[in-house]
Design brief:
This protein is an all-alpha fold. It is built from 16 helices and 2 strands. Helices cover 72% and strands 1% of the residues. A hairpin with a 2-residue loop joins strand 1 and strand 2 (97-98). The two termini are 25 Å apart.
């Protein structure tokens, strides 16, 4: 298999499905426009691709998994809109263009994020998979989004601004803020296909290490890349007084940590799955990404 072409195929499938969302004519048209502005701004679509790949790995059908894949990308997009707000990271640039609140105003940006969060669960629950599997996916996404997941991690992250944070605290924050949604994507793919408990545990282990590698690489790029290369504001963590893996360990040690977590992620896959070549390739690709 040409793994890069497979990635492009899955990403294109997600993009085409998302492009069909929120196109109805209605009085709240500007709200839908704001939702689509952020949802269709590009991006790697890593979370929906992971969900589709794990569903395929466990023998599931793409048509069952696609609504859930779209749902998790909607939830991710809502989090980005809210993260960029002045009350959070106060960023002006996302994916190479002005952030949602810069174009549509803060009120519309908040509402666009809120509406995308609701739409995410609606999309997951519209999956034609077995109802028990659909319910399990929705539960997994809810757990990843709430106080024990993404929102909880964001809360802890904002609380720690201008404070000393050690390695354990930093790992805990990003395990929720970044890792929770990656874990949800992998687990939901297994659930969609009716995978085993062993496969769910392996998917969680894979995603935990992938999430750590992803965040550490993100922190590195925030220091060594440019806004033009990343398509978003760089240096904002240092500006806000946040401890990052890069500030804690330095760029060279971070590179070694990215490779260590990536190898552990791949080992977790090999322990429970055969034919996981695409996901092994994807883990390596994310470890070496430049944006």
């Amino acid at each position: 298999m040409d793994y890069e072409q497979e990635y492009l195929r899955l990403r294109t499938m997600v993009n085409e499905a998302l492009d069909c969302c929120f196109i109805q004519s209605c009085e709240q048209g500007e709200l839908l426009e704001a939702m689509r502005y952020s949802l269709l701004a590009g991006g790697k679509r890593i979370r929906p691709v992971l969900l589709l790949a794990f569903a395929d790995l466990c023998g599931g059908r793409e048509e069952d998994a696609l609504p859930a894949a779209c749902g998790i990308e909607m939830l991710h997009t809502y989090s980005l809109i809210h993260d960029d707000l002045p009350c959070m990271d106060d960023d002006d640039l996302r994916r190479g263009r002005p952030t949602c609140h810069k174009v549509y105003g803060e009120t519309n940006a908040v509402l666009a994020g809120d509406a995308l969060q609701a739409a995410a669960f609606y999309s997951v629950l519209c999956s034609p998979a077995d109802p028990s599997r659909t319910a399990a996916m929705a539960k997994t996404l809810a757990e990843a989004a709430g106080e024990r997941g993404m929102c909880g991690g964001q809360y802890l992250d904002t609380c720690k601004e201008d404070s000393e944070v050690d390695e354990q605290e930093l790992c805990s924050i990003h395990s929720m803020k970044t890792g929770a949604l990656l874990r949800a994507a992998c687990v939901m793919g297994v659930q969609c296909a009716g995978g085993s408990r062993e496969q769910v545990r392996a998917a969680e282990d894979f995603a935990w290490h992938l999430g750590m590698a992803f965040q550490i690489r993100d922190d590195m790029l925030d220091e060594i890349s440019t806004a033009d290369e990343l398509g978003k504001t760089v240096g904002s963590d240092a500006r806000d007084g946040k401890t990052t893996f890069a500030s804690l360990f330095g760029i060279s040690s971070c590179a070694a940590l990215v490779r260590e977590h990536t190898e552990k992620a791949k080992d977790a896959l090999r322990s429970a799955f055969s034919g996981a070549g695409f996901l092994l390739w994807l883990a390596d690709s994310l470890a070496d990404r430049t944006k």
